[in-house]
Structures are given as C-alpha cells and as structure tokens.
Amino acid sequence: KVLVYGYMTGNYSCRDIENACKRDICFMWLLNGSQAPDNSTIARFQNERLLPVIEKLFYQVVNELYKLNEIKFDNIFIDGTKIEANANKYTFVWRKVIERNSTKLREKSKEKIILIKQRYSITNETGISECITTLKQQAELCGIAFVYGKGKHKTQLQRDIEYLEGVLTKQGKHAKYLELIGKNRNSLSKTDHDATFMQLKEDHMMNGQLKPAYNMQIGVESEYIVGIDSFTDRNDVNTLIPFLSKITKNTGKKHKNVIADAGYESEDNYVYLEQNEQTSYIKPVNYELSKTKKYKQNIYRIENMVYDKEKDEFICANGKRLHYVYSEKQKPEDKYKKDIRHYRTESCEGCPHKGKCYKAKSEYREIKISLNFLEKRKQSLENITSEIGIKLRVNRSIQVEGAFGVIKQDMLFRRFLTRGKQKTETQFYLLAIAFNIQKLCSRLENKRFNKDLFELKDTT
Q1: What are the two backbone dihedrals, phi and then psi, of residue 425, each rounded to the nearest 5 degrees?
Q2: Which of 11, 107, 257, 344 could form a disulfide with 16 if both were Cys (CB 3.0 to 4.6 A apart)?
Q3: Contact 79, 218 (CB under 8 A)
C-alpha cells in the first residue's frame, strides 16, 4: 500500500518514501501504527519480495476492472515510449566496434602467438590458455621468479606469458559483450547490461546524443493501462506479437480490435492478428504519403500499377507485363511464412519511361512484393478509414498517448531508479497500478464510469 501510494504521489525513491512515512499523515494512516520502514527495507521488498509477483498483482487489478465493467476487452490502444535507464550516459558498447576490435586483435596477435609457440616448441593446435599453463610450468621448473615495478627487468618468458594473458583477457571481454548484446540489438551499457542506447526526446545536450533506455510498451483500454512490457528494440515493429501474447497469457482473454500507429505495420503482425481473430486497425506506413497528389499521380509506383490476378502479372505504365519469376526463401528469423515474389519484364529497351521508372542499369525492371502483405494493408486501410476506425484512431491519440503524457509530464516519471530489465519492469508495474487507481477515482468523480470511448466532436 505504501509503495503504490508513494507512486501515486510522485515519491519513487525509497528514501523519499521513508521520509514520507515519518512526516506525511496519509502514509502514517496506511502504516496503521506500525513503525516507518527503513529505505533499505523498502528497496529489499520492492526488488526481492515484490519482483516475482508484481506481474500477477498488476493483472489482478486489470481483472478487477473487468469485473467492474470498466474494461471489456474490446479495443486495445498500443504505443511505446523510451524511458531512460539508470545507467551512466557514456558507458556504451557497440556491436560493430567490438567485432572490429576482435578481428584486429586476432590478426595482430596471430603472428606473435605463432612465434611464441615456436620459441618454446609448442604445437600450433594448442590453445592460448593451455599455452599459458605450459609456460608457467616451465617458469616454475626453471625457478624463474616474476618481477614487477619500476627498474625491474622482466625475462622473455614473463613477457610472453603476460602478452598471452592480455590477449586472452581481451578475447574473453569481447566474447562476453557480444553474448550480452545478443542478436536483436547493437549496443548495451556497461552499468546496465539490459539497457540499449536510443535517441530520446529529452536531449540535455541538444545534439541527438544517444542515451541508455528501455522501450516501454503499454496497452490502454477505457483510459486504463491493461498491459505492460519492456523491450531492448529501438523500434516497435517486433514488439506487438510478444506484447499481445503476454496480455492473453495473463488475462486469458483477447481484445477484439487492436489499434496501433504505423510503427507496428508488418506482414508478421497482420498475419498474427488474423490468426488470433483480432481486427487490425494499424495505420499503414505510407498512409500520409498516399493521400498526396504526387503519390497518386506517380504511375511508376507498384501500388499504382494494374495487377492481373488471373495471369499473376503486373502491368506497367507502358503496358508491358511484369511476369512472375521466383519467390524468395523464408528467413530463419521469420515467424510466419512469407511469400516475397519477384516480377520482371522481358525487356525495357526503347521504352519512353526508361530512366524514370527505375534507376537500375539493367535492361529490365524487376519488383519484389508480398501479395499477402498488400492485401492485409488494404484491409487495414479500409478499417482505419471507416466510421468506427476514425473514432478508434482519435481515441488512440487521446488514450494511450495521453497515458504517456500523464506518466511523463504529470507524474514526472522520466528515468528509472533501478537497474536491470526485471527491476525496471517492477517499477513500471507499480507506476501502472498507481495510474489505474488514480484513473478509477477520476472517472468516478467526473461521471465517466463505464464509458469506453470519447465521442468525436461535431465539426458541422
């Protein structure tokens, strides 16, 4: 109770909550005569006792809102924001730099390691660690004592052992960083290995400086936060499927309509929603561009070409047909089967549109497209431009972006106080519980109980 109320009043630090328990009458009432807890007790409770159960507690709150008919699992508005991690600003480790340094180290030390092995009659197949062990044994047998400090003369054997130990240490360091970074990101922070360097809107140096942060995803329904997850991805496109799966796993229910912005558009996401019988209201990436006159009059765009469904051919501006040639193989990381089809004209020689239609130097134009993606995008476009789609899009801007506005501007939560993915999630779950309780009180006071959506303003 003390933790949640502390987050409701903007006290996120354990020391601030400790002081509030000693001085604030509301916190004293919650303690009910008990002694004010120490800040270390509060921190231990939050980061140890609460950490394994906070997710279940949050979804218990969501289910209580469902019982009150405040949440109906009809419409979920999804968006993400980047919140700065509690890590030092200039502790970045970049994948490409590590890979480059690892290659340089390997090339630079290769000849010297071979020379050292030859000097002591060690086979080339022997690893560096085994080589160090062998050399130390030789030093022990020969009675060679290692010396350190200014004015001391090191033997050749000691210098060789120290060189090999330095190479082994650097290799281990590079391997450790690459393992921590993983396959899905390009950076990490030395002081918080789960944080990724991202570009934030709160830029204290005003120069686009990257800072360690987490990509926090939330789902909002009826102004309440009904789902939370944190990601190390800098964009949102790969977060939708695991995020929705997590909500379904914890609540046992699926939202009928999923409303998200253009950052979530992908064929994988469209197929997932269709298979789960959820209606997609995802804005296409080219939506704003497609409304312009220049886009509509561009006869060279794939979207403006005529498609002959029976012959499976595209017809270009000059009337030439692009025939199906082959399909790309599915990538290992693709969760859902994709059919990227390649179409090509026989020849574009003598065409008056050549040079404008495509910029490649080949004698024919080739396009690649997923027909399934085009179909899903068209359906999603029809959904968002329908009467209910327009209403849902307006509510997405009000509800989910409004929730982030309250969290960052009103509650002044812009930086985590803990380190590590699990601890930061615990902190954000507490924040979401506090947000939902405040929202429930606000809706009761403003007589908005059991009202899911804001109505559109009549502009006539």
Answers
A1: -65, -40
A2: 11
A3: yes
Strand 279-282 and strand 257-260: the pairing is: parallel
Report helix, strand or coil for 321: strand
C-beta of residue 222 within 8 angstroms of C-beta of residue 70: yes
State both tokens at 231. Answer: 């990601």
Phi, then psi, of 443 in degrees rounded to 5:
-70, -35
The span from the CA of 196 to the CA of 185, in Å, is: 7
| Burial zone of 9 (CB within 10 Å; 0-12 exposed, 13-18 middle, 19+ buried) | middle
Chain centroid to Cα 406, Å, comes to: 22
Closest Cα partner for 399 from 448, 444, 364, 445? 448
**Closest alpha carbon to 200 in 187, 213, 216:** 213
**Scanning the structure block, which residue is given the tokens 């022997």?**
126
CA 302 to chain centre: 31
Q: What is the mean pLDDT of residues 362-367?
A: 85
- pLDDT of 338 higher than 90: no
- The whole-angstrom separation of Cα 270 and Cα 338 is 12
Q: How wide is the angle at C-alpha 257 spanned by C-alphas 277 and 215, nearest 5°?
A: 105
Taking the mean position of all CA atoms in its chain, how far away is CA 62?
Answer: 24
CA distances from residue 344 to 310, 313, 347, 349, 366 in whole angstroms, order as listed: 17, 9, 9, 13, 4
Q: Which pLDDT tens digit goes with each residue over 241-295? A: 999 999 999 999 999 999 999 999 999 999 999 999 999 999 999 999 988 999 8
Contacts of 432 (CB under 8 A, 6+ apart): 58, 218, 225, 228
The tokens for 249 are 């796993």
Q: How confident is the model at residue 332 (pLDDT cuts 50, 70, 90)?
A: low
Q: How far apart are CA 27 and CA 25, in angstroms?
A: 6
Q: Are 372 and 380 in contact (CB under 8 A)?
A: no
Of 228, 274, 238, 282, whose CA–CA distance to 428 is shortest? 228
Which amino acid does the sequence have at 177?
Y
Average pLDDT, the chain: 91
For residue 460, the model assigns a pLDDT of 60
